[in-house]
Protein backbone atom coordinates (compact mmCIF):
# COMPACT_ATOMS: atom_id res chain seq x y z
CA UNK A 1 0.00 0.00 0.00
CA UNK A 2 1.28 3.45 -0.91
CA UNK A 3 0.65 6.24 1.57
CA UNK A 4 0.65 9.75 0.26
CA UNK A 5 1.40 12.94 2.11
CA UNK A 6 -1.42 14.51 4.08
CA UNK A 7 -4.81 12.98 4.85
CA UNK A 8 -5.46 11.64 1.34
CA UNK A 9 -6.71 8.14 0.67
CA UNK A 10 -4.04 5.47 0.17
CA UNK A 11 -3.45 4.50 -3.45
CA UNK A 12 -3.76 0.73 -3.82
CA UNK A 13 -2.96 -1.24 -6.93
CA UNK A 14 -5.83 -3.22 -8.46
CA UNK A 15 -5.27 -6.98 -8.17
CA UNK A 16 -5.16 -8.90 -11.44
CA UNK A 17 -6.09 -12.55 -11.80
CA UNK A 18 -3.43 -14.70 -13.46
CA UNK A 19 -4.48 -17.85 -15.27
CA UNK A 20 -1.82 -20.51 -15.30
CA UNK A 21 -2.06 -23.00 -18.13
CA UNK A 22 -0.64 -26.48 -17.65
CA UNK A 23 2.79 -27.03 -19.10
CA UNK A 24 3.04 -28.90 -22.36
CA UNK A 25 4.76 -32.26 -22.69
CA UNK A 26 7.99 -30.97 -24.19
CA UNK A 27 10.64 -29.08 -22.20
CA UNK A 28 9.84 -25.80 -24.00
CA UNK A 29 6.09 -26.01 -23.21
CA UNK A 30 5.15 -25.46 -26.83
CA UNK A 31 2.01 -27.54 -26.85
CA UNK A 32 0.18 -30.65 -25.84
CA UNK A 33 0.76 -34.17 -27.04
CA UNK A 34 -1.36 -34.56 -30.20
CA UNK A 35 -2.20 -38.13 -29.15
CA UNK A 36 -3.59 -37.08 -25.74
CA UNK A 37 -7.32 -37.34 -25.07
CA UNK A 38 -7.52 -33.60 -24.30
CA UNK A 39 -5.87 -32.59 -27.58
CA UNK A 40 -8.08 -34.94 -29.58
CA UNK A 41 -11.25 -33.66 -27.87
CA UNK A 42 -10.45 -29.95 -28.18
CA UNK A 43 -8.29 -29.68 -31.27
CA UNK A 44 -9.71 -31.99 -33.86
CA UNK A 45 -7.98 -31.19 -37.11
CA UNK A 46 -10.83 -32.26 -39.35
CA UNK A 47 -14.28 -33.73 -39.46
CA UNK A 48 -14.40 -37.24 -40.88
CA UNK A 49 -15.82 -37.64 -44.35
CA UNK A 50 -19.38 -38.80 -44.81
CA UNK A 51 -20.28 -42.47 -45.20
CA UNK A 52 -21.12 -41.85 -48.87
CA UNK A 53 -17.54 -40.70 -49.55
CA UNK A 54 -16.16 -43.76 -47.78
CA UNK A 55 -18.25 -45.94 -50.09
CA UNK A 56 -17.55 -43.94 -53.29
CA UNK A 57 -14.12 -42.18 -53.32
CA UNK A 58 -15.13 -40.18 -56.42
CA UNK A 59 -17.49 -38.13 -54.19
CA UNK A 60 -14.60 -36.94 -52.01
CA UNK A 61 -13.64 -33.88 -54.14
CA UNK A 62 -17.31 -32.82 -54.27
CA UNK A 63 -17.63 -33.06 -50.49
CA UNK A 64 -14.34 -31.20 -49.95
CA UNK A 65 -15.51 -28.39 -52.23
CA UNK A 66 -18.86 -28.17 -50.41
CA UNK A 67 -17.04 -28.01 -47.06
CA UNK A 68 -14.73 -25.25 -48.26
CA UNK A 69 -17.68 -23.19 -49.52
CA UNK A 70 -19.52 -23.64 -46.21
CA UNK A 71 -16.39 -22.77 -44.20
CA UNK A 72 -15.82 -19.61 -46.22
CA UNK A 73 -19.46 -18.58 -45.77
CA UNK A 74 -19.22 -19.15 -42.02
CA UNK A 75 -16.01 -17.12 -41.73
CA UNK A 76 -17.56 -14.27 -43.73
CA UNK A 77 -20.56 -14.42 -41.38
CA UNK A 78 -18.23 -14.09 -38.37
CA UNK A 79 -16.52 -11.10 -39.97
CA UNK A 80 -19.83 -9.38 -40.63
CA UNK A 81 -20.92 -9.94 -37.00
CA UNK A 82 -18.06 -7.87 -35.54
CA UNK A 83 -19.27 -5.04 -33.28
CA UNK A 84 -22.95 -5.78 -33.93
CA UNK A 85 -25.78 -6.69 -31.58
CA UNK A 86 -26.35 -10.43 -31.79
CA UNK A 87 -29.27 -12.42 -30.39
CA UNK A 88 -28.16 -15.86 -29.21
CA UNK A 89 -30.79 -18.60 -28.92
CA UNK A 90 -29.59 -21.10 -26.34
CA UNK A 91 -30.85 -24.28 -24.72
CA UNK A 92 -33.84 -24.18 -22.32
CA UNK A 93 -35.39 -21.45 -24.52
CA UNK A 94 -32.93 -18.87 -23.16
CA UNK A 95 -32.35 -15.84 -25.38
CA UNK A 96 -29.51 -13.44 -24.68
CA UNK A 97 -28.25 -10.39 -26.55
CA UNK A 98 -24.71 -9.08 -26.73
CA UNK A 99 -22.26 -7.16 -28.87
CA UNK A 100 -20.11 -9.66 -30.74
CA UNK A 101 -16.37 -9.03 -30.47
CA UNK A 102 -14.42 -12.13 -31.53
CA UNK A 103 -14.19 -15.89 -31.76
CA UNK A 104 -11.27 -18.11 -30.88
CA UNK A 105 -9.48 -19.86 -33.71
CA UNK A 106 -11.29 -23.17 -33.16
CA UNK A 107 -14.69 -21.42 -32.84
CA UNK A 108 -15.21 -22.98 -29.41
CA UNK A 109 -16.04 -19.65 -27.73
CA UNK A 110 -17.46 -16.24 -28.65
CA UNK A 111 -16.14 -13.18 -26.84
CA UNK A 112 -18.96 -10.65 -26.32
CA UNK A 113 -19.59 -7.34 -24.57
CA UNK A 114 -22.70 -6.05 -22.78
CA UNK A 115 -24.27 -9.48 -22.45
CA UNK A 116 -27.95 -9.05 -21.54
CA UNK A 117 -29.24 -12.18 -19.80
CA UNK A 118 -32.51 -12.91 -17.97
CA UNK A 119 -30.73 -12.31 -14.65
CA UNK A 120 -28.71 -9.22 -15.52
CA UNK A 121 -26.02 -7.61 -17.65
CA UNK A 122 -22.41 -8.77 -17.86
CA UNK A 123 -19.89 -6.25 -19.22
CA UNK A 124 -17.60 -8.86 -20.85
CA UNK A 125 -18.20 -12.58 -21.30
CA UNK A 126 -17.31 -15.75 -23.17
CA UNK A 127 -20.13 -17.81 -24.63
CA UNK A 128 -19.38 -21.46 -25.29
CA UNK A 129 -20.41 -22.31 -28.83
CA UNK A 130 -21.78 -25.71 -27.82
CA UNK A 131 -24.38 -23.86 -25.68
CA UNK A 132 -25.67 -21.89 -28.69
CA UNK A 133 -28.41 -23.35 -30.88
CA UNK A 134 -28.53 -20.39 -33.28
CA UNK A 135 -27.81 -16.68 -33.49
CA UNK A 136 -29.33 -13.80 -35.45
CA UNK A 137 -28.29 -10.26 -36.26
CA UNK A 138 -29.20 -7.40 -38.57
CA UNK A 139 -26.79 -7.16 -41.49
UniProtKB/TrEMBL annotation:
<feature type="domain" description="SUZ-C">
    <location>
        <begin position="1"/>
        <end position="36"/>
    </location>
</feature>
<protein>
    <submittedName>
        <fullName>Gem-associated protein 7</fullName>
    </submittedName>
</protein>
<dbReference type="GO" id="GO:0000387">
    <property type="term" value="P:spliceosomal snRNP assembly"/>
</dbReference>
<dbReference type="Pfam" id="PF11095">
    <property type="entry name" value="Gemin7"/>
</dbReference>
<dbReference type="InterPro" id="IPR020338">
    <property type="entry name" value="SMN_gemin7"/>
</dbReference>
<dbReference type="InterPro" id="IPR024642">
    <property type="entry name" value="SUZ-C"/>
</dbReference>
<dbReference type="GO" id="GO:0034719">
    <property type="term" value="C:SMN-Sm protein complex"/>
</dbReference>
Amino acid sequence: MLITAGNKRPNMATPVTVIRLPKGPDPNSRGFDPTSARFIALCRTSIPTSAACDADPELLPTEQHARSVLRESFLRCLLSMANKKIQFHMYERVKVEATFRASDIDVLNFQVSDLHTPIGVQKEALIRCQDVISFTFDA
